[in-house]
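Sample entry (116 residues):
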Amino acid sequence: MLFLCLSLFLLQSRVANMACCGGLSEVLEADEKVQTICDAMKPVAETRTGINYVVFTAKSYKTQLVAGTNYFIKVHVGGEEYVHLRIYKKLPCYGGTLELTEIQQGKSHDDPIEYF
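Predicted structure, serialized as tokens:
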């Protein structure tokens, strides 16, 4: 069952993002799905940083296929400030839940999204 779930997920994600397992995808413009992920993780990011974000808008992202998906997302948080989030999404057969695994503060619009 796990093998089938993982195989189907990797096939779907590979076609959607054209990324190989383990490597980062190309930079993509954030869409509604990615904004929904950011919205779900906003309270966690606020707790970790101690900052209440008035603006929290996903701008671009990369993905990494692992046993699930890591999302590396550039988020505009107001003015000239951005943060980069690494969010892990479990495979659907494990509940598909989200976890904010890392946050980088002090980023700018021009900072590239890289593995962290």
